[in-house]
Design a protein that fits this description.
Blueprint (H helix, E strand, L loop, with lengths): L1 E2 L10 H11 L11 H21 L6 E4 L2 H16 L3 E5 L4 H12 L3 E5 L9 H7 L4 E5 L13 H11 L2 E5 L11 H4 L3 E5 L10 E5 L25 H39 L4 E2 L10 E5 L5 H6 L4 E2 L1 E2 L1 E4 L2 E4 L1 H5 L4 H4 L2 E5 L6 H19 L1
Parallel strand pairs: 1-11, 3-4, 3-5, 5-6, 6-7
Antiparallel strand pairs: 2-8, 7-8, 9-10, 10-15, 12-15, 13-14
Length: 373
């Protein structure tokens, strides 16, 4: 199998496996225990917190561990809403369901939800954010990088607007952390979420950055772990794994970016050479270095990938009850139906090779030619 779906999930890095292994075996202590086994677990959690903070260039105390980005996003949206009371939340039409679904829930409870459009490249206009801010605005939530197109939003500009308006600002950085440098001060965010399994840590672990001075009502109440912000016994093995993944990312991100971009662009060039009608979905420049979302107009993405089981990738349209529905992200971008239904998302990762990229392009083009016949 040629795996080209690194935006969906990543394998564990070998270094991550080695780091967590002792905590699956002998080092099984509870960080809340006062004897040596518990103290060692507590120290491991503290080191992981320092490693996550180091990747984001923030203070360790500003990191709250979670089960992933979905919990972190829900914590910010619902927690800030409960802390601040009734008001307006501004977000965009291309957010992950882990943001849009909590927003719908809050809307049913009387909160005002403003969903901003994006342009044909999938980018939100900072000026639209500025115009949407009112005295009732309590939170702005805009993703850093889109999971389907890789589009990088103008987070720093929006952060500047939010800071000037006195409004707290959250970004879902699940797709960007580990792929490009992400520093909270440069982005001017008050909250940031990340997911370990997007950059070679296990599924089921993530983190929330909370800028000093910002607050929320916790989703989980209990014994007061995470400074009272997220109750529950810490998942020590996975936190150690997340910390090691962050250490690796901090060490490698500058060299990984150009390498991933070269693989992505090679794949794009090969597909375009064999299918000149190929359409790029998303911005040419302002996107993740590993992400390629393209359409084969007039064809079905599911028919293309369905005929080449050797290639693992994602679609831009889903089939339900015999009818194809296009991605809400592509719909928000105004991509025509005949183009959107032929969309595929191809995302490369550290283990991807030039040979895999070339072979994947060859298989896809063979399948396209067969479908056209």
């Amino acid at each position: 199998m040629i795996y080209l779906d690194y935006n969906a999930t990543t394998p564990l890095a070998p270094e991550v496996v080695r780091a967590l292994q002792p905590y699956l075996e002998g080092e099984f202590g509870n960080p809340s225990s006062d004897y040596l086994l518990g103290i060692k677990a507590k120290e491991a959690v503290a080191e992981a917190r320092r490693q996550v903070a180091g990747l984001l260039s923030c203070r360790p105390g500003e990191i709250v561990f979670t089960s992933g980005a979905t919990e972190a996003n829900n914590t910010v949206l619902k927690g800030v809403a409960r802390h601040r009371g009734q008001g307006q939340i501004i977000t965009t039409a291309i957010e992950h369901p882990a943001v849009l679904a909590p927003c719908r829930e809050l809307q049913s409870q009387g909160f005002e939800i403003t969903i901003l459009p994006v342009d044909s490249r999938g980018l939100v206009d900072p000026d639209a954010v500025r115009r949407a801010i009112t005295p009732k605005t309590i939170l702005i939530s805009v993703m850093h990088a889109n999971n389907e197109t890789g589009a990088l939003q103008p987070i720093a500009e929006i952060g500047d607007l939010a800071r000037a308006s006195g409004v707290w600002f959250h970004t879902d950085a699940a797709q960007s952390v580990g792929k490009i440098p992400v520093q909270v001060a440069e982005l001017q965010v008050d909250f940031l979420t990340l997911a370990g399994h997007k950059f070679y840590a296990p599924k089921g672990v993530g983190a929330l950055y909370v800028r000093t001075g910002c607050a929320f009502t916790p989703l989980l109440h209990g014994a007061g772990q995470e400074g009272g912000r997220r109750a529950g016994t810490e998942n020590v093995p996975y936190l150690v794994a997340l910390g090691e993944a962050c250490r690796l990312a901090r060490e490698r991100v500058e060299q990984d970016g150009p390498h991933l971009k070269s693989l992505r662009d090679l794949l794009h060039a090969r597909l375009l050479a064999g299918f000149p009608e190929l359409t790029l979905n998303g911005p040419e420049q302002e996107r993740l270095p590993n992400t390629l979302n393209v359409s084969f107009p007039g064809l079905s993405g599911s028919a293309i990938l369905g005929g080449i089981p050797e290639v693992a990738a994602s679609l831009g349209a889903a089939c339900h009850s015999g009818e194809e529905t296009i991605s809400p992200v592509l719909a928000a971008m105004g991509v025509p139906l005949e183009v959107a239904r032929g969309a595929v998302r191809l995302s490369v990762g550290r283990p991807t090779t030039v040979g895999e990229v070339e072979r994947a392009a060859e298989l896809m083009l063979e399948r396209v030619r067969a479908l056209k016949r």
